[in-house]
Amino acid sequence: MLRQLSRSRFTPSAWAREWVSITELNKARIPRDFVSEREMTIDPVALTAAYHAAINALDFEMVDGFFAANVVYHSDGIGSLYGRASVMSSFKSYFERFADQTATDEKIEQMDPRAARAIWTLTATDTSTGEPIQRRGEEIVTFDEAGTIIKVYVVDY
């Protein structure tokens, strides 16, 4: 069974052709189109876009698959989180509170062979207050040689 992110704006793009099955994802940890097995090179821009598409789709199983077990995630809003379980727990709590979040990447650019920088905007409603929020910021996502996320740094503008 192949999975595609149906709510993703990225699916029609050339780089988001096909997702690995959940079984393959658990082995490979990432979509196969973004890593060249021959050269073991990665495309950090495509991987970051796919990671964001999984977040927008609220596909926590897919999001989990992007993170290395020892991932470090830092955001000014929450501080530093260490490890996949901690990051995923924080994501799930966040999306319980902001379940209607819609995020858009204004730009994703490669910073080096294993890192990309995304500038994004988002809107959501805080379910605890009913108040709408808007945020804009940037995120630097760093990958290991296999294309798994090892570090995320988020800054709101």
Number of strands: 8
Shape: globular
Biggest pleated sheet: 6 strands, mixed
Rounded to the nearest angstrom, the distance between the terminal CA atoms is 40 Å
Output the structural class: alpha+beta
Secondary-structure element pattern, one letter each? HEEHHEEHEEEE
Instruction: Kindly report the average pLDDT value.
Output: 82
Are there runs of 5+ residues with pLDDT below 50, and where?
Answer: 1-29
Q: In which order are the strands of the major sheet placed? A: 4-3-8-7-6-5
The Cα radius of gyration reads 15 Å
**Number of DSSP helical runs:** 4
Helix content: 25-40%
> Strand fraction band?
35-45%
What does this structure look like?
The radius of gyration is 15 Å and the shape is globular. The strands form two sheets. Strands 4-3-8-7-6-5 form a six-stranded mixed β-sheet. The protein has a two-stranded antiparallel sheet with strand order 1-2. The protein is built from four helices and eight strands; from the N terminus they run αββααββαββββ. α2 packs antiparallel against α3 (60-66). It is of the alpha+beta class and 157 residues long. The protein has helices at residues 22-28, 44-56, 60-66, 84-97, and strands spanning 35-36, 41-42, 67-75, 79-82, 102-112, 115-125, 132-143, 149-156. The model is unreliable at 1-29 (pLDDT under 50).
